[in-house]
Amino acid sequence: DVVAERPAKLPESPVSAVKISSRERVIFPGDDLTKGDLADYYLATAPITLPWLANRPISLVRCPQGRARQCFFQKHDAGSFGEHVHHVDIREKDGSVEPYLYLGDVDGILACVQMGTIEFHGWGSLVADVEKPDRLVFDLDPDEGLGFEDVKKAAADIKEHLAELGLTSWPLLSGGKGVHVVVPLTPEAEWPAAKSFCERFSRALAEAEPERFTANLKKASRKGRIFIDYLRNQRGSTAVLPYVARAREGAPVAAPVTWSELRDIDSPRHFSIRDSAELLARATGRALRGWGLADQVLPDV
Ligand code: ATP
Ligand code: MN
Ligand code: MN
C-alpha cells in the first residue's frame, strides 16, 4: 500500500555501513553539537524517520561548514552522494528532465549527513507516482509580532475546518517558527486539483477572518497575520519531513505531536536532536499511534 506505515517493531540500534568523517566538527556552534552528534541522531531515529522520508523526491539543506556558515538548498544531483542515494528523473516545468534524489534506507540518510546535510525536505508525493500527492501541508507562517499561541489557535481552527470537509489532519512542530498541518491523502488526485483545493481553502479562511489570516505570499500583507502557505501543495514544492533536524539555533527537529499535546507546548522548537530517545519512545507509544495516517481523498468541493 502507498500509505506510510509505522514499523511494527523497532530494531534495538540501527546500524549503517556509511562512514562519517570529521565527527568532531562542531556544526551547531553555541549548542556544542557536532557532525557526529547529528549522525548519531539520524542513525537512532532512522526507524521512525524512514516511513516519512523514504521513497519520495527530496531536497537537502547542506551546511558543510556548519549551520552558522553557508548553507544551500539542493534539489538535484547526478551521483556524487554514492550508491545509497538514489535518483529519479522528473520532468521540470520547462520540459527538461532533472535527477531528483530519494532514499530507501538508513545508509541513504547517513550518506547525506556525511555530505554535510542537516535538513531533509520532501515532495508531497512518492517516487512511485510523483504526479499524485499522498500528503498536503498547510504551512502556517506567523508575522514577526505574533506569538506561538496565535499559531496554535490557527492550526486548531484549520483542523476543524478540514474536519468539516471530511479530512483528518495532524500537527507537526516545524522546528522553526510555525506549525505544519499535515493531511495524508490516498494518492488519486493530481497536483493541479490538490493545489486548487488548498488555495481555495486558504483564501476562504483569509476572507472570513482577514484580521488573522492571509493567503497572500507578499510579506506586506502578513502584517500581524498568519500566512497560510498553501504553496507547499504544488508540484515540485517541498516541506520539512517528520523528525528532520533544522539548521537553526538549538538543533531543533520537526516533530509530530497530537492536537491535545499541542495545546500545552510552548514552542515549535520544543524537541531537539538531543531528544532521540524521547522521540523514539513517543513515536511507538500510544499517543502518536496512527499519526499522519488516514485513508482519505480530496473532497469534491
Ligand atoms: P518555519 O516554521 O520557520 O516557517 P518552515 O520549514 O515551515 O519553518 P518555511 O520558510 O515556511 O520554513 O518554508 C516552508 C518549506 O519551503 C520548507 O520546509 C522547505 O521545504 C521549503 N523551502 C524553504 N526554503 C526553500 C528554498 N530556499 N528553496 C526551496 N524550497 C524551500
Ligand atoms: Mn513555515
Ligand atoms: Mn512557508
UniProtKB/TrEMBL annotation:
<protein>
    <recommendedName>
        <fullName>DNA ligase (ATP)</fullName>
    </recommendedName>
</protein>
